[in-house]
Each structure stands twice: as C-alpha cells, then as structure tokens.
Amino acid sequence: MALMPKRVKHRKSQRRRIKGNATRGNSVVFGDFGLQAMQPGWIKAQTIEAGRIAATQYIRGEGRLYVRMFPHKSITSTPLETRMGKGKGEPEHWVATVKPGTIMYELSGVSEQQAKVCFARLAHKMPVRVRLVRRRSA
Amino acid sequence: MAETLNVTRRETTGSNAMKKVRRAGLIPANLFGHGQDNVNLSIRADEWDLALRRGAKLLALAGDLDETALINIVQWDHLGTTTLHVDLIRVSADEKVATSVNIEIRGEAAGTKQGGSVNQVLRQLDIECTADSIPASILVNVSELEVGGSITIADVTLPEGTILVTPVDTVIVVCTEVLETEEDEEASGVAGLAEPEVIGGKPEEDSDD
Fold it and tell me: What gap in Å lies between CA A58 and CA A65, rounded to an integer?
C-alpha cells in the first residue's frame, strides 16, 4: 500500500512553487549512508514505495533502510473528456516535496560498496538527480 | 594534539558582508569563552577543510591571535559539503572539557557468519577529559559478537584520564538475526486508494441530506 496521511486538514492543496534548499532533514541521522536529492521535485507515494522495494530486495534484510520522506501533499486531476469548469478535480495521488539537500533514504548495517549498489538501483526510480552521502562525524 | 590554524580578525559583520567573505575563500568564525570578549574571525577555507579531515577537535589559533580553542558548532550548507560558519570556544590545553566522540566499529562480527546482521545503535559517546587528550574516536571490536549478543559501554576500554558521561549500561552495537522480507514486499502492492480522514470535516450521515 502506498503511503498516504491518515488525517488531513484539507483534502486538496494548492500546487505552490518549490523554492530554496532543504534547511531541515538534510543530514544523515539514522543510518551510515544517505541518498540526497540534488534537485527540487515531487516524489509520488508509488515512487517512494518502488524505491523502498528496490532497496530492500537488494539488502535482503541484512541492513536497515530508513525512508526519510513522506507524501503529505495531495495532487488532484480532472477526468479525461470532462468539460471545462465544475471546480477542482479530485485527489488522485500523494506526493512528497523534496528540496535540494533533502535526505530521501538512509541505510545502516551495510558496507559502503553495498550501499553504493543499493542506492544506484534506487536512484533509477527517482525523478530527481540524487547522490550518495555519508554520515558526518562529530 | 592541537591543529594549527591561521586566523585573521574580522571587522565586518552581517549576512551581506559574510557572503563577500565566503566568496574570498574564507570562513567566518567567532571565538568566545573564558569570560573574555567575543572576537570575530576569518579562517581560510582550505586550511579549515584540512583540519576537519584530520579529525581536529582542538585548534591552536595563530596569526592575529595566539590562543587554543575547541570547535563548538559548525554550520554547513544545505548539501552538507561547505562550511558556512564556525563557533570556537577558548580553552587551555589542560582544561577539563565535556565533549562527544565518535564510536567506530572494528572487525567482522562472528554473528555475521552465522547469518546475523550488525546494527550500531549508539554513534557518539559523551566524555569528559582534558582538551589536549580528546580521542579522535573510540574503537569497538565486534569480532566476538554472536547473534543475539550486544556490546555495551561497560565492555569498552576508554583512554586514560577520560571520564564517561553516558550511562555505562547503554548498548553500542547489537547483532540480530536477518529477517526475510518477502511477505512485506507482497503486501506492499498498491490497493484501491482510500481517502484520509478530514479533520473537522462533515460526518458522512450529514452529507446524505
């Protein structure tokens, strides 16, 4: 099941522009390695799930994967062959907004080589440019 | 061992002036502590990067100042690659300081050969020691760690003169059995989308009217 909020204040949200860089969630916190977004973008809940599956299939329970983003934003669309008007469409899917610097996934309990391969598989699923980062020492 | 860093006194303050400082290949820094006045400094970015790569914690400031300082807070850019600002605290080399050091895992756990997975729970250790004897990292040998076993701080030998602040029974690393995740993958197929509950929304009975 793709991710989605349990409760929301409003069913539909305005699109808004993604401005600026990530000021929060931009460092590796839980694992040893992280996948960092280099571009702003919307990541669909299905894409987050696809990435999670691609990574867990590779690590096979050896390490631990942390998903650091959540789809809070609903995206609406009007059905095909619908006349103009009649208001905003119905929510179709949910997306996570990522800014440059956001850590999208983290991995722990694996070697750097394994993390590289795992994140390379995962990166193919992502609609934004990403890179591997290591946990910063104190 | 203190890392030597050349610093220059900085007269300018404010975000606009700091942008110019950074563009000139310098990093703005502040030095404070010991009840003395705060000093605004500039550090050469290449020297700073080198000191960080060497794992420096204690710095011997040279150039316009002649003091010893401890790295307090480092501000990074959004990608975590460039240092934006550094806070330094005045210390004397033989002064006791409270700091945190990284825990590094060494060796291959015996449990991994039995199908286990090593998971590091604790990354940093809070310690008290003299400023000139802060260890670069605390090494933990996991070669004898079996599946289901764990290593706590009590099992680690600290350098001489170091006082532990973190509770002794805190677990550093555990070795757990690898769990199969196949059923999890099957369950993750996208089912028919249900809508989330709207906070303060009308109940369904009212909408039928």
Answer: 11
Mean pLDDT, rounded, of chain B = 86
Substitution target from A108, A118, A128, A133 for chain B, most B beta carbons within 10 A: A108
- Which residue has 């990354």 as its token pair? B123
Tell me which of B43, B60, B91 is where a domain ends: B91
| Residue B124 domain flag | yes
Q: Do residue B62 and residue B110 come from a single domain?
A: no
Give the pLDDT band (50/70/90) at residue A59: confident
Cα–Cα distance measured from residue B40 to residue B38, given in angstroms and rounded to the nearest whole number: 7
- Mean of the per-residue pLDDT values for chain A? 94
Q: Which domain holds residue B25?
A: 3-91
**0.90 exceeded by the pTM?**
no
Nearest to A138 among B80, B102, B180 (CB): B102
Q: Specify the CATH class of A33-75+91-134 in words.
A: alpha beta
Given a cut of 60, is residue A37 above it in pLDDT?
yes
Q: Do B196 and A5 touch (CB under 8 A)?
A: yes
Residues of B in contact with A49 (CB under 8 A): 188, 190
Q: Cβ of B196 and A1 within 8 Å?
A: no
Domain ranges of chain A: 33-75+91-134
**B180 — pLDDT class (breaks 50, 70, 90):** low
Locus of tokens 């605290």 = B89
CB atoms within 10 A of CB A100: 19
